[in-house]
Amino acid sequence: MSEYRSITALDQLLDDLVVGEARRRQLSMVRGELLRALARGALPVPARRSLRRLLEEDSLGPYLRLAESGALRTRLVDGKRPPTSAATNEIRRQVLDVLREALGLPALQLGGGALPLQPTPQFGDLAALRRQLDQDLAGHMSPGQARLTAVLGLVLDAAPRSGELVELRLDDLAAGIAAVYIERRPQRGGGDQDGEGSWYELSPLTRAALGRWLPVRAELAQHAHGTSRLWVSLWHNHDGDPGREGATLNRPPGMPLEENGLITSYRRGRARYGLAGLLPPKLEQLRRAVIAETPPVATETAESS
């Protein structure tokens, strides 16, 4: 047990996280750096006692500056502790987001230092991912796996952003599930024009995946009195403060899935459905890997004329 209660709580959190071997090593790296930062007295005193305070931005700002400077290295490089690489800095921030998500905290917004998300090299063979999804479609699928497989198929075919995915509706699918209409919603001044959309032809894999998801979706949507959104929730949940009487709003299964829910389902599905070795940690990385392999090409359909 650590002398710091926050690190003891962090160790318990790490024990419960379901992640791959590579991510486990990265989590261990960050855990060690946080411990050394606390030992140096570099972080606010409350960060010693509370994991939540340790992972708040006023603690992580000083930690990141110290870690990126190389001061928290355990090994010397030519007798020195040089700054860590840009790739390591980005991995460190990704790991912190994983930890913050596990505590119900939003992604970091510290600015500076982070790299644009790029495809993770070891996940470049998207053909292996397609083969695995095709095999999965031949067997039994839970509702969650059916939904995730359909999401992945659309990303592989059209490379939509998460915000574009959650806005999809049933009438964005062409007759026979032959194509999908994506209205581009670029971030940070992206190349696509906001509000402009195109139709993208769907592969046999994606058509089969949507064929598995749509009946499940229809049954779920009945619980919520119907919605035209393509992605819906699987379980009962609520909005508001459950600790205050009358301050919560019950949400039955079949409610429209929001962007945070979609991203969370992707992260959890990687491990739950045996895809951690084929999918990068973030959905955005998969999208960029698809674009790097073969940029999706818009197609003409009857609906687009």
UniProtKB/TrEMBL annotation:
Entry keywords, A to Z: DNA recombination
Entries under Gene3D superfamilies matching the protein: Intergrase catalytic core
Record InterPro entries: DNA_brk_join_enz, Integrase-like_cat_sf
UniProt protein name: Uncharacterized protein
